[in-house]
Amino acid sequence: AFQFKDGLPFPYTQPLGAALGPSAFLGQGVGWDQPSDNKTPRSQQWGLSIQHEFPGRWLVDAAYSANKTDHLVAGAYDFNQLDPQYLSLGLALQNQAPNPYAGRIPGALGGATIARSQLLKPFPYYTAVTVRNPHLGSSVYHAFLLSVERRLSRGVAVLVSYTNAKLISNSVVTPINFGPVEQVGTVGYQNGKYNRAAERSLDPTDVSQRLVVSGIFELPFGAGKLFSASSGAVNKIIGGWQLNLISTMQTGIPVQIRGASNFLADRPNSTGKSPRLDNRTAERWFDSTAFVNPPNYTYGNVGRVMPDVRNPGVVNFDLSAVKDTGIAERLHAQFRFEAFNVLNHRNLGLINGSFSAGTDGFNRSATFGTITSARDPRILQLGLKLIF
Q1: pLDDT of residue 184
Q2: How far is the C-alpha of 209 from the C-alpha of 211, rounded, in Å?
Q3: Pairing of strands 129-132, 30-33
Q4: Is 8 exposed, middle or buried (CB count within 10 Å of its CB: 0-12, 13-18, 19+)?
Q5: pLDDT tens digits, residue range 92-151?
Q6: How many angstroms separate the CA atoms of 263 and 23, rounded?
Q7: Which pTM does this prediction carry?
Q8: Does the pLDDT of residue 16 top 80, yes or no?
Q9: Could you tell me if 99 and 117 are in contact, meaning their C-beta atoms sit under 8 angstroms apart?
Q10: Are 111 and 124 in contact (CB under 8 A)?
């Protein structure tokens, strides 16, 4: 450890900057930030909402909401990617050819011979030209929202929220992560320079349906309530109780399939049949025989996510009981009993979507299409605090 005011404890090299010249990174991978060309990220939103209040303080709100975005930051891609017109050469791309840059480029790319695939790249004297933060992302979101609310009256409050939605995107970069068992957006490309449209699909974080029911119920016991005792001590014991419930039920997020062995693709091909199963189990969530290794030097035709297979959904009920007891004018005691996943419902984790091709082209991984994890089981906790 040292302080900067004392200087660095070791010799250092000043950055050369432009003095390095245009040949500074020959034989290496380079990167550049693609100019946005005034393509500022844009969001267009529209919606329609209808509300009506019914007798008994019930409020119903039905709404349609949409959001279309353009010019968002998308995943990086290789500007030095081999043109797909050369992929028909197949294994011949691995052949060595005389290197016109021999001795003029440092490192492996300056040898006497070089792989034909490298020689056919737009910039054969670089291993890769990574385009960082291109403003090529877009998404569209449509949702039907329904909420039913009963505001607190006579010790009872209820809120029911239902969403039916669809989010479509194409490798939009997002920093959001909704928990340790959820997947974030997939921002890579198979064919980033020549066919980014192939990445347009359901977003990996899309939840098609979600229902949340929450409620508060103040028990009618104690002083000033429907059932009260003549004894103040008894009222303190039986009064001040409140029950709270939050229940969540939602569909799972789409399944991502990755893996291929053909010198190019990172996704398999579909055999043409849907992998969806009617009787799913943790040991076989989808039909793993619906995928096959693509031919050499071709891109797998499986999309960024599966359109008809989703990970397991969530069914969760959280319950709490709270008791407030007044001890003095400015001193209260609060007892809490909380149960997360009170029904101890087994909520399975994410599916293993790693395809591994065998000699016949079909999957050979025993864990492909299986689930080996689950969300938290029932958790109980007690708490006591003084408020003053």
Answers
A1: 56
A2: 7
A3: parallel
A4: exposed
A5: 999 999 999 998 888 889 999 999 999 999 999 999 999 988 888 999 999 999 999 999
A6: 30
A7: 0.84
A8: no
A9: no
A10: no
